Amino acid sequence: MIRRLLAAALTIVVAGALLVACWPQLFGVERVIGVAQVVSIRGMLALVAVLSAALLGIFAVLSAAARRFFATLATMLVVFALVSTAVLGVRGFGTPSAESDDGDLVVLSWNTLGDAPGSDAIAALALDEGADIVSLPETSEDAAAAVAARMAASGREMQVLGVQFDAISKARSTRLLISADLGGYRLDDSVGSTTTLPSVVAVPVDGSGPTIIAAHPVAPVPSEMGNWRAGLDWLAERCADPASDVIVAGDLNSTLDHWGSLGSDAGIASCDDAARTVGAAAVGTWPASVPPLLGTPIDHVLSTGAWQAVDFQVIESMDSAGSDHRPIVARLRPAD
Asked: Can you tell me the distance from the alpha carbon of 178 to that of 185, in angstroms, rounded to the nearest whole number?
């Protein structure tokens, strides 16, 4: 009797844990410590669930006394894996590159892990993609300047803006390159920044053009959970006005699952996620050492309704370049 009660209790606990891991937004706990970390690795969890179900199936065959218990757990894990895979399928595993059009903006973002790929590799990628906007979290002033110089030498003039909290770590520096074709830009210090790690807010000098944000909220490690939540809330404030013209690009240290309480099911507040729009939001950008479908999609490009995402690509060819993040490239088209 006691054994059956314990088995039933454990079954209920596992079922509850799987339900929370599958859809934490249902309970409003997607930004709670523990849950926030688990839900970010949907692809990996689905794989682990399948392997665990197979192991439990073997136990069910070998143990007549606990067959029903093991079979029940295995069934729940299979259902969890199927639902998680379905969620990832809805978000999309990537699409072929779309045709470019006059007026498109090409936005590149790459967390360089402290300049690890080198300025030549960063500039070459930006030139190959025809980037108009380059967001470079964890990148030093010298590296960003070198990237801009190499792009200028190839006929692509870029303005360099940045915010650096201190010189202790390059992670505390974020840089933003903006094509001269978009006009002059200046830093907007009036809206502040994310805490722990900096974000750059650039506005057009003449008031004509999008506000461009190179974003880098801190990661949701246990000691930084409050700052992580505050960073996402800060981004939601930047995207609060649906009539505004805002483009956000960077390492947001969060997935679509973490944005459930931020006012949108397709992005953050009035900023839609480019990958979600084109069907590529299940492709992992971190870490670069694991297959994309098992990684975590934490690097993003978002925009308000002034722009329509027509393409989004995760660049896998740079996995050995030195950074732990994959670069991402989005093409945004004016909505008018």
From this structure: 8
Q: From residue 90, how far is each of 19, 98, 229, 260 by CA, in Å?
A: 18, 19, 26, 16
**Who contacts 168 (Cβ-Cβ below 8 Å, separation ≥6)?**
none
Given 3-state DSSP classes, what are the helix, strand and coil percentages for the chain, each rounded to the nearest 5? 40, 20, 40
What is the CB-side half-sphere exposure of residue 13 using CA atoms within 13 A?
Answer: 6
Of the candidates 291, 296, 319, the one whose C-alpha atom is nearest the C-alpha of residue 220 is 296
pLDDT-derived band at 10, boundaries 50, 70, 90: confident
Q: For residues 239 and 270, is the Cβ–Cβ distance under 8 A?
A: yes
Task: Give the position of tokens 């295995």.
Answer: 74
Tokens at 85, concatenated:
């895979």
pLDDT (tens digit per residue) in 264-282: 888 999 999 999 999 999 9
> Where are any strands of DSSP class E within 206-280?
211-215, 246-251, 267-268, 271-273
311, 328 contact by CB (below 8 A): no
Query: In whole angstroms, how large is the CA radius of gyration of the chain?
Result: 22
pTM over 0.90: yes
Tokens of 72: 């029940």
Contacts of 66 (CB under 8 A, 6+ apart): 7, 59, 60
What is the per-residue pLDDT for 283? 97
Give the integer Cα–Cα distance in Å for 227 and 194: 8
pLDDT, tens only, 187-226: 999 999 999 999 999 999 999 999 999 999 999 999 999 9
